[in-house]
């Protein structure tokens, strides 16, 4: 009788607590899979900065400053045909955007697609003969600005910078970081090499969330 009672008690305990190792192993495996699984970064989104609409500034574009100046050649920061390199006194503004026909009397100059613009009233006509060549796909050239998946924002350099690991330093980022080389576009999520500064000895490949032209 005592042996029978012990067996009955053991069966009841197992039913309540799950003595079998299968459920425990399954739970452990699920936890391990959950903890080790990593979410793939989202696909890179492409944007066109469009400050003009029907001959005037588009809604949502904020003017931070108005001044007079002129443009003498095409933009080095953005390969679009409506992007220009301009002077405000001795200060170079690049890129500055005109309307699509290049006949606007002012251009909108921006440090980045996230900044306010300078409304530069032109003292000379735009040098339309110096415009960047047009392309069926305006995103075929190098992006003007990038936002990395970690939120870091970077703008393209337009002058001499240097190189890291044989790659030219192409973008400057918030916080002093730099990007080297050009975006890798082979997959839906683009990547680019990131360094902590001009003198860094290491470049890490980072996913790109957004690209701007």
Verbal overview:
The chain has 213 residues and is α+β, with helices and mostly antiparallel strands. The chain folds into two domains: 48-130, no CATH class; 145-212, no CATH class. Helix content is 15%, strand content 38%. The protein is built from two helices and 15 strands. It has helices at residues 2-17, 21-36; strands at 45-47, 52-53, 56-57, 63-74, 83-88, 91-97, 106-110, 117-122, 145-148, 153-156, 163-164, 167-173, 178-184, 191-195, 204-212. The protein has a six-stranded antiparallel beta barrel with strand order 9-10-12-13-14-15. Strands 4-5-6-7-8 form a five-stranded mixed barrel. It has a two-stranded antiparallel ribbon with strand order 2-3. The radius of gyration is 28 Å and the shape is globular. The termini are far apart. Residues 1-36 have low confidence and may be disordered.
- Report the average pLDDT across residues: 85
Tell me the helix content.
10-25%
- Determine the N-to-C terminus distance: 85 Å
Tally of helical segments: 2
Helices and strands in order:
Layout: H1 2-17, H2 21-36, E1 45-47, E2 52-53, E3 56-57, E4 63-74, E5 83-88, E6 91-97, E7 106-110, E8 117-122, E9 145-148, E10 153-156, E11 163-164, E12 167-173, E13 178-184, E14 191-195, E15 204-212
């Amino acid at each position: 009788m005592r042996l029978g009672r012990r067996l009955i008690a053991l069966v009841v305990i197992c039913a309540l607590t799950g003595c079998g190792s299968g459920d425990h192993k399954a739970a452990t495996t699920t936890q391990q899979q959950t903890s080790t699984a990593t979410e793939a970064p989202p696909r890179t989104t492409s944007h066109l900065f469009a400050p003009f609409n029907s001959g005037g500034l588009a809604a949502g574009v904020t003017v931070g400053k108005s001044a007079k100046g002129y443009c003498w050649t095409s933009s080095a920061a953005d390969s679009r045909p409506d992007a220009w390199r301009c002077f405000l006194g001795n200060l170079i503004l690049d890129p500055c955007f005109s309307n699509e026909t290049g006949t606007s009397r002012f251009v909108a100059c921006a440090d980045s697609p996230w900044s306010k613009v300078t409304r530069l009233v032109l003292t000379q006509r735009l040098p339309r003969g110096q415009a960047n060549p047009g392309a069926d796909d305006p995103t075929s050239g190098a992006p003007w600005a990038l936002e990395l998946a970690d939120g870091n924002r970077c703008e393209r350099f337009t002058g001499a910078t240097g190189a890291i690991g044989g790659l030219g330093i192409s973008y400057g980022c918030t916080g002093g970081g730099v990007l080297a080389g050009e975006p890798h576009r082979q997959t839906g999520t683009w990547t680019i090499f990131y360094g902590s500064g001009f003198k860094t000895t290491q470049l890490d490949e980072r996913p790109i969330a957004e690209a701007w032209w």
